[in-house]
Amino acid sequence: MSEAPQDSRADVLRPAAEVAGRASSGVVESRPSRPVGRLFRRLLPVRPVRDIDRPAPVEIYVEEPSKSRIPVGRMTFLAFVLVPSILVAIYLGFIATDQFVAETRFVVRLGPQDNASSGTGLAAVMSSLTSRGGSGGGTSAEDAHVVTSYIRSRAIVDDVSKLVDLRAIFTRPEADFYARLPFDATIDDLAAYWQRMVSTYVDGLSGIVTVEVRAFRPADAVVLVRAIVQLSEKLVNDISTRARSDALRRASEEVERAQQLLYEAISEMERYRNAEGLIDPVQTATETGKLLTKVLADQIAAEGELFVANRSLSADAPAVRRLTSQIQALRRQAADLRGQLAGNREEARNVAASLAKFEEVAIKQKMAETLYGLAEKGLDRARRTAEAQSVYLSVFVPPGLPEEYTYPKRAEYTLAIAAALFVFWSIAALIWLSVEDHRLS
Question: How far apart (Å, rounded) are the C-alpha atoms in residues 214 and 229?
Fold first, then answer.
């Protein structure tokens, strides 16, 4: 019963004795370690540890840094993490100037549109707006994005500079050296600085535009926001006016083209009438047909009288000769009338040929008159739609005077920068250790 405990005790004491023997002989045992452990052992070396139970010291780590120089890991940690973090904290805590934010919110709305106006003119130009806004008005998301693009552009910097002294606002005496605009800044530098101090956001569902402006004084932030709203309203009005003007111009151009076609058709009809000597070939054909019918009736009556006279009178009788001459004249007249209506006449054109040309010219004139009438109606619809349709900017959250600063966020910025520097330093240290391991191996 006593042999098992003695064996277990011997198994426990044997490795300890072996370790003590190797330590007394100067042999150091290296144990496997994890990469993170190796990182901190190389960058922040640990001094030899002595075993308190044994008189002989046991060295756990072989490397012993030189007493004459600072460890590389500690030096880089101080240079790239600790010192920059302290400098950032000093700047944000004692140097950075308070920045005040003024905010406004607005929407670009569509005025009511006449549903009866469609097809041509401004109705066709504003059809997309109608589908989004309806007949009762609505918001225009596309125009909202146009406005925000204008607010973030260099064009508004030039326009705002005409209303307020933009450089003086961004170079206030109380502004610190990093936050303020450089005194020798160019117009491109001013535009880039403007984009840093002004932010915009468009809600995709409602089309609400949110504008925030930062300045070193509360009153300056409010002045800049009001200038932005004023210029944005002017931009929206210019877009709406230009759209209406373009639609009316196109409708007027259509009317002018139709009018020119009508004038050409009327001139062609006039030239035709002068060349043919006919006002209306259709009326002329009708009158000629009536006259031919009367001549044929007189001819039939004369032939009947001649038939009766031949039965009672001789061929040389005066009555017979008169009827014969009358019948011959009526026949010549009927043949001439038939030639006027149709047939091949070498000396003059007949009514049928004149009627064909007349119908061609008349159809052109009728089409020109129809096109002109449609163009006139389109211009009238465009004019009525332009009077009813409007796109305007509606501000429902006016800018207010801020009482407390919003930027800089001192605690958040300090912690974020320190954490980012530590992460970058750790990554660089791991890469350096990996290179060193490959080199030593």
Answer: 15
